[in-house]
């Protein structure tokens, strides 16, 4: 079973794209409400998005390494998968920060 989600750089790219899309959606839709939201609605939305984001990031970063470690009994490959995923995500994040720094500066 060789799927596209088994590639660490694809999982890192999905995580980075999710964060960018989420940040832009908050930035550009936050000012389009005519009235203030009830604090209970805001807290509920925040906690819902936090739980969803944590679950998505856990799946993207940990599922394949844990599958390799527990099911396939391949600890070195599991560590390599996690390291490559984290490293690629770090590279995408630093690239995005550098792009914003140079675009705004």
**C-alpha Rg (nearest Å):** 17 Å
Q: Stretches where pLDDT falls below 50 for ≥5 residues?
A: none
Mean pLDDT: 90
Euclidean distance between termini CA atoms: 46 Å
Proportion in helices? over 70%
Report the sheet-strand fraction.
under 5%
Structural class determined from secondary elements: mainly alpha
Q: Main β-sheet: number of strands, strand sense, barrel status?
A: none
Query: Number of DSSP helices?
Result: 3
Q: What letter string, H or E per element, gives the SSE order?
A: HHH
Shape: flat
Number of strands: 0
TL;DR of this structure?
The chain has helices at residues 8-29, 39-71, 75-104.
Element layout with pairings:
Blueprint: H1 8-29, H2 39-71, H3 75-104
Helix pairs in contact: 1-2, 1-3, 2-3
Q: Could you characterize what this model shows?
A:
With 105 residues, the protein is mainly alpha-helical. It has a domain at 8-16 and 41-104. Helices cover 81% and strands 0% of the residues. The longest helix is centred in the middle third of the chain and has 33 residues, at 39-71. It is flat and about 55 Å long. The N and C termini lie far apart (46 Å). The model has no long low-confidence stretch (mean pLDDT 90).
């Amino acid at each position: 079973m060789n799927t596209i989600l088994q590639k660490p750089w694809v999982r890192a790219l999905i995580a980075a794209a999710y964060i960018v899309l989420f940040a832009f959606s908050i930035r550009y839709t936050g000012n389009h409400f005519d009235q203030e939201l009830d604090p209970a609605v805001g807290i509920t939305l925040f906690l819902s998005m936090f739980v969803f984001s944590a679950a998505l990031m856990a799946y993207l970063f940990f599922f394949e390494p844990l599958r390799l470690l527990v099911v396939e009994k391949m600890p070195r490959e599991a560590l390599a998968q996690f390291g490559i995923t984290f490293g690629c995500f770090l590279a995408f994040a630093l690239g995005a920060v550098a792009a914003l720094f140079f675009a705004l500066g």
